[in-house]
Specification:
The protein is of the alpha/beta class. The protein has one domain (2-205, 242-256). The protein is built from 10 helices and 7 strands. The chain has helices at 7-17, 23-29, 33-39, 52-62, 101-111, 128-135, 179-190, 211-219, 234-237, 267-277, and strands spanning 46-50, 74-78, 117-122, 143-148, 170-175, 199-205, 249-254. It has a 7-stranded parallel beta sheet with strand order 1-2-3-4-5-6-7. Strand 1, helix 4 (52-62) and strand 2 form a beta-alpha-beta unit. Helix 2 (23-29) packs antiparallel against helix 3 (33-39), helix 4 (52-62) crosses helix 5 (101-111) and helix 5 runs parallel beside helix 6.
Length: 285
């Protein structure tokens, strides 16, 4: 039946079917020469790379393919391998090592022209990997998800007029560091690069004194004081980036922490929750 279908129809079918990271497209490619040729652009349509071994292997493979056959639209990448000693003992050889940054950057350059969604979980790679991501040009990327383990993000000056993510609409971010020292500097670096950013989601958020004031500055509100009347100095708040007017929704999902002083998550969390109930048109929830 499929042998008689025109390529245009098969293209639509494969677009819907080949969303599992490659197994379906590879299975179709083994049925006949005709289906092998039609399914070739979908072999890497959805790509999931877990661990250094898979990252290195993907680069070595993609770098040998012509542009039309390395069309990656959805990429999941992490430097932490999923190790099964019975299924794949070779992965153990690479456990604990980090990808060579000289390889990580070319890999992103290969897939960036067609990438639409990008999810990156960083555990052991250096903080410079974040610089690599933000400096790579993603012309059609619409959704970016970043989860950092130990990496710190610093405020960097962004060169005016350089839009590396011109179509980015959704940003998801998580970090093991506090909101004011992770989410705030990341937003300051991403916002000038993404003029169409409309939805921002911070999950697993950790709060400390002053984070509510930082959030106020991001939303364009007057900074609020904590229970002791303290507010961060202007030297810190002046670095905080104001959310672009294109952003319609800001979502904060707080990390689950033990209760302190009889209040869940402390007084700072209570301030943020009060902010979410205030009737402002900045989309905070």
């Amino acid at each position: 039946m499929l042998q008689t279908c025109p390529p245009e129809i098969l293209h639509l079918i494969f677009t819907l079917a080949c969303t599992d990271g490659g197994p379906t497209a590879r299975a179709l490619a083994t049925t006949s020469k005709y289906l092998s040729a039609v399914s070739a652009p979908f072999l890497y349509h959805v790509l999931s790379l877990e661990g250094v071994h898979q990252i290195n292997r993907a680069y070595n493979r993609l770098s040998t393919l012509p542009c039309e056959r390395r069309r990656v639209e959805h990429l999941f990448l992490t430097d932490k391998p999923t190790f099964d000693p019975i299924r794949d003992g070779t992965e153990q050889l690479f456990h604990g090592k980090v990808p060579n940054e000289h390889l990580f950057k070319p890999l992103l350059a290969l897939v960036a022209p067609t990438l639409r969604t990008f999810t990156c979980l960083i555990y052991d790679m250096p903080a410079s990997a974040i610089d690599t991501i933000l400096s790579t040009h993603f012309p059609v990327l619409t959704e970016l998800s970043l989860a950092l383990h130990n990496q710190r993000i610093s405020y960097h000056m962004v060169q005016p007029g350089v839009l590396t993510m011109p179509h980015l609409e959704r940003l998801h971010f998580s970090s093991t560091h506090f909101f004011s020292s992770s989410a705030a500097p990341l937003l300051a670096r991403v916002a000038p690069l993404a003029p169409r950013l409309s939805h921002v989601r911070f999950y697993g958020v950790l709060l400390m004194p002053g984070c509510s004031a930082v959030l106020c500055r991001m939303l364009g509100r007057l900074p609020i004081r904590d229970q002791y009347g303290w507010v961060p100095p202007d030297s810190l708040l002046d670095k905080v980036c104001r959310l672009p007017f294109s952003v319609r929704q800001v979502e904060l999902q707080l990390a689950c922490l033990p209760s302190t002083d009889g209040q869940p998550y402390g007084f700072e969390v209570d301030l943020v929750r009060r902010m979410a109930t205030m009737h402002y048109a900045d989309g905070l929830s």
